[in-house]
Amino acid sequence: MVLKNNIPEWKNEGIEPSENLKVEGHKAGVKPPASLFNWFWYRVSELMKEVKERVYTKDETYTQDEVNSELEKKAEKSLFENHTSNKNNPHGVDKIQVGLNNVDNIKQATKMEFDSHSNNKSNPHAISKVQIGLSNVDNIQQATKIEFKAHNADTTKHITSIERSNWNSKATGNHAHNFSEINNVPSASTALSGITKLTDSVSSTDIVTAATPKSVKIAYDTAKACKAALTAHIVNKSNPHNVTSEQINTLPIYSKKSTDDPSQYPMGLSQVMVQAAQGWDSYGQVVTFKSYSSSDGGAYQQYVPYDSSMGGTKIKFRIGSYIGGTNPGRGGWSEWQSYTTITDFENHTSNKNNPHSVDKIQVGLSNVDNSKQATKIEFDSHVTSKTNPHSVTKVQVGLSNVDNIQQATKAEFNSHNTDTTKHITDTERINWNSKATGDHSHNFSEIKNVPSASSSISGITRLVDSVVSSDISSAATPKSVKSAYDAAKYSEAQLNTHSLDKDNPHSVTKAQVGMSNVDNVQQATKVEFTAHSTNKSNPHAVTKAQVGLSNVDNSQQATKVEFTAHISNVSNPHSVTKEQVGLSNVDNSQQATKVEFNSHAMDTTKHITAAERNSWNAKQPAVTDTGWVNLVMQNGYTALTANPLKIRKIGNIVHLCGMINAPGSTNGKTIALIPAMFRPSQDENIDAILAYNNAGTQYASFVTGPSMDLTCIYSTMNSNIVAFNGTWFVG
Fold it and tell me: What pLDDT score does 644 carry?
């Protein structure tokens, strides 16, 4: 740009004003001293000299329409990056340009494939037993005579007539008791299921009765109403707190000089109008994005200048850095840069003359020569031949002595030997012998299928004193209902506090405050574009498929002579074995005959029927008591010496009790190991009481299940003492 007027000189350096004066400016009625004016005009004069020395002198003034046209044509960074990452041969490189013009696009059998096939000992031709004269031999292992006799004499799997009569006389499982015959019916508590009475209140702190559905509904409706009001306010995107544009860094007009370094701009996105008096080329707009950091960081700035008649010049950008932290300092800006135009970009992308000098090495075909090989069709025809092209015999696969005779197979024998209907186990024998007699009584803990209360069934229930449980099979204590109700009232107070929050809690966007047209788009620079255009290292990763050689492999091929010699080889060149022809399990030994096997399988004295097994399994089992077993603690939890955490199983009911020392928050951690025989058939919430609850601010939930040890799944507690007293069914 050529300057039409001489730059005025001002040699009095004056005195620089304080930072506070720079920020606040002169107040009305104040007469600025001459030293400040001298400082200002001296700085303007020096800046203009620097501009004259450093600015490109070519005359480039444009009209507003020309500026808009340039903006529409600029090549954005995303377009440039899309091209440089294009792996679909954007320049149309062909096989001639990579030095393989004589290679036909025909798939050949490579030398590696040929050698691999010749040395293949895994029956590549799928030779079958039919082709080697063993069509009637099944590839199954047979039960030997020794195995059959051993099974027939097995008195564990087979039962006697005395055992059968004894088991059939046991008491049946489908017997009933009157409620008057039930002893020790428990009362419901936070630790045990049982009978209880109801309390209809939202203010009671009782934990030994059950809350009515009515009281739960009152607490729920109160919480729901507060939540609905809070949700409606939170989703309000209409700027309910009246956030203004000043709150998102719209800087005062003409407040920034071109020499201000990045540390003098606010964090995030900001915009400011500028003019030549602050050292800019002309009147215009500057948009700056500064990264958030408590130490050092970077910034990006875009400048749209206009000359005095409102005709624009080209948009420019620069990159900056700054130093922050406990020792803040000044950073700096890079030189102003212009954008690569769409014309430059389109000229490069339309270049089909291999502009990157891609060769055959870069497309993965460095080893391909122009010579005649055995074709892939010939090679594949031989490899896929399933008609025994090498005339392999049963002698060559090690089965010369095998005849076509059908035996009772190993599978048949094993199927019978593992038949759990006809045979019984030691466990079943011991279990059936321990069945209870018909004249017996039960404690309540031994009664199965006692109904539990639910929303559709009346029954016994236990109490849960918690406001975070999602359990729908227990009853809430009035105390927990009161806690929920109090929490709802607390949420209502929080909603009122939020409604008065004026610190942009809804993340109001620039569009909502009238700045929707401010862009923050980075473009490809001329340096990046030039670096890509001159890249000769196959930057688009052009492949052999893209140059018309998709079927050519980068390897040496087998010759026609080698291929023909292999095909005519009838001496079992692949060393085919009996395993490869489907007879790996055939041995040369005597088997139990089919007649012997069938005779044993039909023996109804030694074997039992499915009906007998079901009848015996339905017998009333004898009640067993494991006694108290101390649990092994985990993850820093320790048991109290005076009352350790222990477990006991009586019949099908498991009892857990004891006290532990708990460390701080241990969400998701295992507390103690639960042996498999004590675990419930479904996940169970375990009731526990915290010794120190700090006015209701500490909570903890504990669970065990079929595949889970005693685990803390939720906790807000600090170090505490926890008392357990839980009961559940197994089986």
Answer: 95
